[in-house]
Design a protein that fits this description.
By secondary structure, this protein is an all-alpha fold. It is built from 21 helices and no strands.
């Protein structure tokens, strides 16, 4: 009798979510790890000019370095989610931290541009993919009522690190050259490993490896297991596909200012430190946007999808205004638009991941986040090279920022086609049906047919 009450309490706690306790420790771990993933990725624009001068390549060719890293991180996110579902989230994140640091350390020894593609792009990108999605899903699984606020606090490190990293990286490049700076960043990225060690193993509520293992052949059982870990059934659900398309369009233009705003500012006639401080100011307002958006979203006054659409639209408009503000040579105008863009860009990231469990359910959240990152990886691969190509053709970054902002506005229009988008309440998330549930439904239908009266069966035969 003493074992009944604790079990019941634990089940209710898991259903409602703890909203505190060790979850806040995981928020701190996410705070550090995301700063060393996307905060560092955003600040790589400091190396952009150095790479152009050292390797004597076009802006488009250099843009593929950061774009490859972003696309690799998103492409391998389903692998990270599947490994977490199959094995141990803690181990997966720690391995990812080691790969992230190793890629940057090897990049410091690069002698050709292809070496940077393989090290900063592929190796570090793979490590980032094994870190980001599992950390986000772990924090989301530990919160319910304050989930968006927890994400906002965890993601605020990206803006904080952008504010701190840009001047720091500029100083490191001037003092140790780009090779020494990358070596230091590689050692800094290894701090992701202790962040992953803070993740506590959780009991799994489902065991997809045991589904129909006795009746199906080994190959079919393996395919069912892989499909269950990756949550491939989501690819056949219209709400998820529509939302993923909207996020992918957003991803095309979202990162362009973080890679090219520094170069654009220097081309507009501002000094190196003035250009770096523009990104630092955007990073500072990014912090405020993430926390304020998370707090406001959890008040429940508006649906999350409506708030996401608003912030995405505003971010697109401000991206388009960035080159316009600097045409007159006014540094103050450029700074104001950068602050507004940073706030909007930070505000939408607190919401974009919190919408996923509303569409797919908490049970399929890990796989849903992984597939989302995979599908939008193609968009991340396209964004910065397209921006670099437009710069090479036109000679400036005006067209680059105009096209990038247009993609975010197009993403807003795409999300408006979601089912029940104009409703005031969120529809209930779809429930996952396992193969066992389908078999039970089939057996119940057969029982109903077999339970028909004999004379009815006889009449049907006649």
């Amino acid at each position: 009798m003493t074992d009944v009450k604790p079990k019941a309490e634990s089940q209710s706690d898991e259903a409602e979510g703890p909203d505190g306790g060790w979850g806040w420790v995981l928020v701190g771990a996410m705070f550090v790890s995301t700063s060393l993933v996307f905060g560092l990725m955003r600040s790589l624009g400091i190396f952009f000019v150095e790479f152009v001068q050292y390797f004597d390549e076009s802006a488009q060719a250099i843009s593929w370095i950061s774009s490859t890293g972003l696309a690799t991180q998103q492409f391998f996110s389903p692998l990270g989610a599947a490994l977490c579902n199959a094995y141990n989230t803690r181990v997966v994140v720690m391995i990812g931290g080691c790969l992230a640091g190793l890629g940057l350390i090897l990049a410091s020894q690069a002698t050709r541009l292809v070496h940077l593609y393989l090290t900063m792009g592929v190796i570090s990108g793979l490590g980032w993919g094994l870190v980001f999605t599992p950390m986000v899903a772990t924090v989301m699984a530990n919160f319910t009522r304050r989930r968006t606020l927890a994400l906002g606090l965890g993601f605020s490190s990206i803006g904080l690190s952008s504010f701190a990293f840009n001047p720091l990286f500029q100083l490191l490049v001037e003092k140790y050259a780009w090779r020494g700076a990358l070596l230091i960043l590689g050692g800094l990225s290894l701090n992701i490993v202790p962040c992953g060690a803070l993740i506590r193993p959780q009991r799994r509520s489902k065991a997809p490896a045991k589904v129909d293992s006795e009746t199906n052949p080994p190959r079919a059982s393996l395919l069912q297991r892989v499909s269950s870990y990756l949550e491939l059934s989501l690819l056949f659900e219209r709400p998820y596909i529509t939302y993923t398309l909207g996020v992918s369009l957003m991803n095309v233009g979202y990162f362009v200012p973080y890679f090219h705003l520094v170069a654009h500012s220097r081309q507009a006639g501002f000094s190196e430190y003035q250009a770096a401080f523009v990104m630092s100011a955007a990073g500072a307002s990014d912090i405020l946007g993430r926390v304020a958006s998370g707090w406001f979203s959890d008040l429940g006054l508006f649906r999350l999808i409506h708030l996401l659409s608003m912030w995405t639209f505003l971010a697109g408009v401000f991206i388009m205004l960035l080159p316009v503000s600097s045409l007159s040579g006014s540094y103050a105008a450029l700074m104001v638009i950068s602050l507004l863009y940073g706030f909007s860009a930070g505000a939408l990231t607190s919401v974009v991941f919190a919408v996923v469990p509303l569409i797919v359910g908490v049970e399929r959240m890990m796989g849903g986040l992984g597939l989302l990152q995979l599908i939008e990886s193609s968009a991340g691969l396209l964004g910065t090279p397209l921006s670099g190509f437009l710069k090479d053709v036109t000679g400036n970054y005006v067209a680059s920022f105009m096209v990038s902002g247009g993609f975010l506005i197009l993403a807003t229009l795409t999300m408006a086609t979601l089912p029940h988008f104009f409703s005031c309440r969120d529809p209930p998330p779809p429930q996952k049906r396992s193969l066992n549930d389908k078999d039970k439904g089939l057996h119940s239908e057969l029982e109903q047919i077999n339970s028909l009266p004999a004379d009815t069966n006889h009449r049907e035969e006649l």
